[in-house]
Amino acid sequence: MINLLSYNISYGNRFIGERSDEIEIHYNVDFQEETEVKIELSDYIFNTEKQHQVLRLKKGNIWSRFSSRGSHLVNNKKQITTSFVEPLKVSFFNNKTNEIINQFKIDIKFVDVSLRSRDDNKINAWIFGDSHIGHICEDIEYDELEYKDIRINPICKVGLSCNRFNNSDFINFLSHFPIKNRDIILLNFGEIDCRMSIHKKNYDKGIKKNIILKGVLQSYINTIQSIKNYYSENRIIVLLPNPPFKDDHIMTEEGKKNLLFNSNEVDRMILHQNFSLTLFEMSTLKNNFEIIDLSEFYQDKYGFISNKFLRIEDCHMKSNKEYFDFLYKKLNSYWNEKL
């Protein structure tokens, strides 16, 4: 048996660039014999980022320490993060049988005010997306996204598909960020779905891909409406997902299996086009969100993402400051049109 006793979180000083946090978890162990235990820490809302330790335990009071940078190194000391700002889940498994011994929710909430612009007169544009948005800003310093009248804040959650976002407590997640009434909320989801998860669900359950896509999109529209209802004073903008990459992009066989689920460029492009077209149509009908399409910045003449922007043997784009400069021009133009 394992019982949680207490926990303590120490936060880095955001205002001097320290964005690594640590959590120390104290728990009591009482086994009849020594047992190999896996202690796993994960984010509670989306359950996409995990890290673990393995210890041989029998009896007594034990503690384990985890760093917020232990599971993924995107944006180290940069924009954001795997920081401990949201509820966490700590799980204890028998490492031999994988049987769950016990699980606990660590219900924390830390609103990181340092993510906002230091100029209160500026609009903050919050981009909530998957690991793509994290990799694009990986080598960009914090102040480089501080533009004349807008501060861009990329918020990265590794492995977060549009479908998973839709089926989560997304309002709870957004509430962990200091979003004010004049700010812009941008959503950047869907690439994972069109590249991998829709193909996997089609393979596993035999459901047609267009039917799966339709369900994801309907849920996304409902999600956007819920966000607009909660953040009624904020502009909601949907960034269309990255275009698919071509089959000639250099990938290992393992990468093709894990990152593409054996999809091909034709299937990925059909899903991407249908995803984008539907969002365009719904933005016109619903009139509660806007669309920004950045694909002209990095697509080739056939509509695929150009290989020169991609990391070799990876599905992510290289870090690119010009991407955000291009987005800023779009936002600035959009903002001036509304005045």
Number of domains: 2
Report the major sheet: 5 strands, antiparallel
Estimated helix fraction? 25-40%
Helix-strand topology string = EEEEEEHEHHEHHEHHEHH
Q: Into which percentage range does the β-strand content fall?
A: 25-35%
Total strands: the figure is 10
User: CATH homologous superfamily of the largest domain, by name?
Assistant: SGNH hydrolase
- Which stretches are low in confidence, meaning pLDDT under 50 for 5 or more residues running? 70-80
Structural shape:
globular
Look up the CATH topology of the largest domain.
Rossmann fold
Indicate the structural class.
Answer: alpha/beta
CATH level 1 name of the largest domain: Alpha Beta
Q: What would the average pLDDT be, to the nearest integer?
A: 87
CATH architectural type of the largest domain: 3-Layer(aba) Sandwich
Alpha-carbon distance between the two ends: 62 Å
Number of helices: 9
Provide structural commentary.
34% of the residues are buried. By secondary structure, the protein is of the alpha/beta class. It contains 9 helices and 10 strands. The protein has 2 domains: 2-106, Immunoglobulin-like (Sandwich), CATH 2.60.40.10; 116-338, Rossmann fold (3-Layer(aba) Sandwich), CATH 3.40.50. Strands 1, 2, 3, 4 and 5 form a 5-stranded antiparallel beta sheet that branches. The protein has a 5-stranded parallel beta sheet with strand order 7-6-8-9-10, sandwiched between helices.
Topology:
Blueprint: E1 2-10, E2 22-43, E3 50-67, E4 88-94, E5 100-106, E6 123-129, H1 131-136, E7 150-156, H2 162-166, H3 170-174, E8 184-188, H4 191-205, H5 209-230, E9 235-239, H6 253-260, H7 265-286, E10 290-292, H8 295-298, H9 321-338
